[in-house]
Amino acid sequence: MRATRRSLTPAEQQQAALSLKKKFSLNLSLKYSKRIALYLANDGEVSTHLAIKQAWKRGQQVYLPVLDPIRKGFLWFVQYQPNCRMRNNRFGIAEPDPRFNKRINPKFLNAVGLPLVAFDACGNRLGMGGGFYDRSFEFCRQASVKPKLFGLAHRCQQVKSLPVESWDIQLEEIISV
Q1: 176 and 20 in contact (C-beta within 8 Å)?
Q2: What CATH number does the domain containing 101 carry?
Q3: What is the rounded distance in angstroms from the CA atom of residue 104 to the CA atom of residue 126?
Q4: 139 known ligand binder
Q5: Is 127 annotated as a binding residue?
Q6: DSSP letters of 53-105?
Q7: Is 113 annotated as belonging to a binding site?
Q8: How many domains is the chain built from?
């Protein structure tokens, strides 16, 4: 599935980014969320750059995942603004530098767009295998107030079915473009 999404042409990727922006503007949970977390596309993932710019125009606060330097396997969420200081993490992925940008507890996010490798019609998500999002949002199992979790994917990433593990966090919706 990773090879499939990497094989998309630049034109297909740009069209997917435009479609995602449009779907974000139609999804009320995303459109009216004050604090949203997204990601910067890597390895052929659906690009969120247009959706992020749209969120900034609406006055939304945008946060990106940052590898937690204290608790291995967890994520911090750090505010992302135009021209904020960035750094590359150990995987070579750009992330806002937490020394210079505001961090938020994931419990206070309103909506989160998660990258994925594959998904099925039941809303199950296959990630990159590190469990970062599952660990970071494990509190959602018990919390009455929690962020809405959305998987973001290209349509070509849909598979017939995926195995579900006890630690997998359920997504509210998959937005495929």
Answers
A1: no
A2: 3.40.50.10420
A3: 25
A4: no
A5: yes
A6: HHHHHTT-EEEEEEE-SSSTT-EEEEEE-TT--EEE-TTS-EEE-TTTS-EE-
A7: no
A8: 1
Binding residue per annotation — 40?
Answer: yes
Alpha helices in the chain (DSSP H): 2-6, 10-26, 28-31, 49-57, 132-136
127-25-74 Cα angle (round to 5): 30
- 73 marked ligand binding residue: no
On whether 171 is known to bind a ligand per the annotation, the reply is no
Tell me if 86 is assigned to a ligand binding site. no
Is 129 labeled as ligand-binding? yes
Angle between helices 49-57 and 10-26 (to 10 degrees): 30
Q: Which residues pair with 86 in a beta bridge?
A: 96
Q: What is the pLDDT of residue 170?
A: 84
pTM score, whole prediction: 0.94
Is 45 marked as a binding-site residue? Answer: yes
| Boundaries of domain holding 142 | 2-176
131 is in an annotated binding site: yes
Which pLDDT tens digit goes with each residue over 33-88? Answer: 999 999 999 999 999 999 999 999 999 999 999 999 999 999 999 999 999 999 99
CB atoms within 10 A of CB 142: 7
